[in-house]
Write a structure and sequence with these properties.
Number of strands: 20
CATH topology of the largest domain: Rossmann fold
CATH class of the largest domain: Alpha Beta
Distance between the termini: 51 Å
Number of helices: 20
Structural class: alpha/beta
CATH architecture of the largest domain: 3-Layer(aba) Sandwich
Largest sheet: 6 strands, mixed
Shape: globular
CATH superfamily of the largest domain: P-loop containing nucleotide triphosphate hydrolases
């Protein structure tokens, strides 16, 4: 069994950070941070994108990028971690300090099953046999709410929320003394989020585990943590008890974050035409192969979307909500023609976009391509939706191949520049850069410019703001409202964040198990839900405390 840090004295902080500074090249990332954490405590770190939250977590884990220079002290159970050799840190990571990363697809290995990835940490740090580690891995997956998911599944076969639960299972498998959770509930729906937070709280009470929760969701932080750090530009602006921070004496910056968390749409004139059907979906059925296919055996399909019908009107904002795995993203992929459908029909502007493959004709397939420029998508992870080897000018111009008439190079550049400027990105600075050189909010604006470049009628926003901090999210949502008013766009807003859906949509569909269980005007559905399932979603929405 791997050696780990010895027990701390009761009166000794589990983690002590003193005068911590971090620079990468000439850029100062963190500046003289100091805080401490005792066993069983929960510390929250909040702030805008680029404030240094995640870099603080990575500094504790000693997972800094090449060229980073770290000064100051990070002591875990009295052992100094700064400049500790990598062999020793490998013993501490996983066994004594676990970490939940924000991007589950980046944190998971795509070529190994989920059970194997959880079992690996158990086998390395707890010294169990292969069979014992897989048994323990199965129990850990069950504990994070994946009891109905087979351990031989691969990450790409799971929804975003399910993948995040696998990452959490890996982090808690060895019952670490300190868990660093970097946006652990970003990809989770409200009920799963509540369950995961309850699980982490239970683990803390059982084991005395301390936790650092890095998040942009102030409502989750207010409900979960005892102590709070508010960061901006690599420094700590506010620190102390959570109740004291979220009070009438909060700093101006903290109040700005609180105001952004309760964002409401600007008053703009919408061009919605409820008499004109833009998108029509009738009896849609789609799914994935169930289990491993055997030679010559008929393909077994497990329906992820089951007999779904709805319409989106011109200029309308329609919300699509439900728990992780309810079929929201699968439905979006069907609308885009990115996966085959088993039954039903999708039409846009009166022309067929998708039919079951067995009844498609060549002319119908050509229609689908011709109208596909009228429907675009903005994904949850903007970085993952771009080719990192291409510059912004080429990335934004990609959909232009859908136009009937090709554009010259100068025409393409002119249109790309105009769209970037429209979404708040300076073209002269952005055209020749790569996406990794931009912040998360800037990447999402670039993704929006790419969706707008062919002047679509409908944009699907698949969790498009869930990974953004509160202030950037408010800016992007305000931009979406402005674009809808100016361009007459319709949005299909796929989200697990009901507070955002309440603010930005006209109507809402609630999905569960691939079916629509409730639909109607957003205010009516979320204020007076008819189904028990919708009520459970509404009840699980975290709320900010009232300032006193």
């Amino acid at each position: 069994m791997s050696a780990s840090v010895q027990g701390c004295r009761v009166d000794t902080p589990l983690l002590r950070v003193d005068s911590l500074s971090l620079s990468i090249g000439e850029d100062a990332i963190l500046q003289t941070l100091s805080f401490q954490l005792h066993a069983g405590d929960t510390l929250g770190i909040v702030g805008e994108s680029g404030s240094g939250k995640s870099m603080t977590a990575l500094a504790i884990m000693q997972l800094l990028p090449v060229g980073a220079e770290l000064q100051g002290s990070i002591a875990f159970c009295g052992e100094e971690l700064v400049d500790l050799d990598e062999a020793r840190m490998q013993h501490i990571r996983g066994a004594d300090i676990g970490m939940v990363f924000q991007e589950p697809m980046t944190a998971l290995n795509p070529v190994h099953t989920i059970a194997a990835q959880v079992a690996e940490s158990i086998r390395l740090h707890r010294g169990l046999t292969r069979d014992e580690s897989f048994t323990e891995a199965r129990a850990t997956l069950d504990r994070v709410g994946l009891s109905d998911i087979a351990g031989d599944r691969y990450p790409h076969e799971l929804s975003g929320g399910q993948r995040q639960r696998v990452v959490i299972a890996i982090a808690i498998a060895c019952r670490p003394r300190l868990l660093i959770a970097d946006e652990p509930t970003t990809a989770l729906d409200v009920t799963t989020q509540a369950g995961i937070l309850a699980l982490l709280d239970e683990l803390q009470r059982e084991t005395g585990m301390a936790m650092i929760l890095v998040s942009h969701d102030l409502a989750v932080v207010a409900k979960t943590v005892d102590k709070l750090l508010v960061m901006r530009d690599g420094t700590i602006l506010d620190s102390g008890d959570t109740e004291d921070i979220f009070s009438a004496t909060a700093s101006a910056y903290t109040r700005t974050l609180l105001d952004a968390s309760t964002w409401s749409p600007p008053s703009v004139s919408r061009r919605a035409d409820h008499n004109t059907v833009l998108l029509q979906v009738d009896g849609l059925v789609a799914g994935y192969p169930s289990g491993r296919r055997r030679l010559f055996a008929p393909r077994q399909i497990k329906n992820a979307v089951d007999n779904v019908s709805f319409a989106v009107h011109a200029g309308e904002n329609l919300g699509l909500v439900g728990e992780s795995g309810s079929g929201k993203s699968t439905l979006a992929r069907c609308l885009l023609g990115l996966m085959p459908i088993e039954a039903g029909m999708v039409s846009l502007n009166g022309r067929t976009l998708s039919l079951p493959k067995r009844v498609q004709s060549r002319s119908q397939q050509e229609w689908g391509r011709a109208v596909r420029r009228d429907i675009q998508i903005v994904f949850q992870d903007p970085y993952g939706s771009f080719n990192p080897r291409h510059r912004v000018e080429r990335l934004v111009a990609e959909p232009l191949h859908l136009l009937d008439e090709p554009m010259t190079r100068s025409q393409r550049r002119q249109r790309v520049s105009a769209l970037l400027e429209r979404v708040g990105i300076e073209p002269a600075d952005a055209l020749g850069r790569y996406v990794h050189e931009f912040s998360g909010g800037q990447r999402q604006r670039i993704a929006l410019a790419r969706a707008l470049i062919v002047q679509p009628s409908l944009i699907i926003l698949d969790e498009a703001v869930s990974a953004l901090d509160v202030s950037v999210r408010a800016q992007v949502l305000a931009l979406l409202a402005e674009l809808a008013a100016d361009e007459g766009l319709a949005y299909l807003f796929v989200s697990h964040d009901l507070s955002v859906v309440r603010n930005v949509t006209d109507r809402v569909l609630v999905m569960r198990g691939g079916c629509v269980v409730e639909s109607g005007l957003t205010d009516e559905v979320l204020s007076q839900p008819r189904s028990a399932y919708t009520r459970s979603l509404v009840d699980a929405i975290p709320t900010l405390p009232v300032l006193t």
